[in-house]
Amino acid sequence: MDASITQLLNLSGKTAVVTGAATGIGEGIARTLSGAGARIIVADIDIEGAQRVAAELAGDAVDLDVSDPDACAQILSTIGDRIDILVNNAGSYHEAGSILDQSVESWRRSIELNLASLFNCSKPVAARMVEQGGGGAIVNIASVDGLLPCLGTGYDSAKAGAIHFSKSLAVDLAPHGIRVNAISPGVVPVPTLDKMHAGEIDPLWPLNPSESGLMGPLMKQRSSNVPLGRKGTPDDIGQTALYLVSDLSSYVTGQNIAVDGGWTLI
User: Fold this and answer.
1) Is 155 part of the annotated catalytic residue set?
2) Residue 253 exposure: Cα atoms within 13 Å on the Cβ side
3) pLDDT per residue as tens digits for the range 204-237
4) pTM
5) Under a CB-based contact definition with an 8 Å cutoff, are residues 126 and 88 in contact?
6) Which of 93, 155, 243, 251 is catalytic?
């Protein structure tokens, strides 16, 4: 392979903050970026998991609740010598399902965890990137649920907002050379859902839900009929994130890439 092509994917000397990287998709992203040479800061409310991943990647771990704007401002304004890359991955499926079952508090939690958190983390990091000079890259993990309704009005709306937030932020920060993009994963099994189905953790949504078109037969049929014939993996998302934060995508900003095996096509 041409050495110049390889160099475009080289993240050596760069520091990347990945939120929600103690497990699942976030962990896969952190491992991929580390493999490309980046120094990783694992930011997660699950500090034990964050420390495990950080130790394996020779990085750093920080206890961070992304729904707390003050904590995000304090921690992300000071951690590390610099921040070149931010991947806003942290989120939650909690209390998905019908609006008939969802409380106002539940709706607000979904928006706070899946949308407001992007602002909470991006603002202090963007300020640092501007002060540092030299640009930077922000990637927001949205979802195919932000393109096609699936899980619930709170989650789906938050993820749709994440996509448009990425576009707006891309225009906002373009004069500073900071690129902003989004990734919408499709069906990617994660440990949290596996543990829920196995009864190891409390259910993330009502056990006896109201009748709803969401999370029903149509959604199950779509999820079991992915055109490429398989479910995604955290590595699939990590490799796309690597493309978006590397110089290989130096002229790409404000885009949302659906990494879904064709899920949104059917």
Assistant:
1) yes
2) 20
3) 777 788 888 887 777 777 778 899 999 999 999 9
4) 0.95
5) no
6) 155
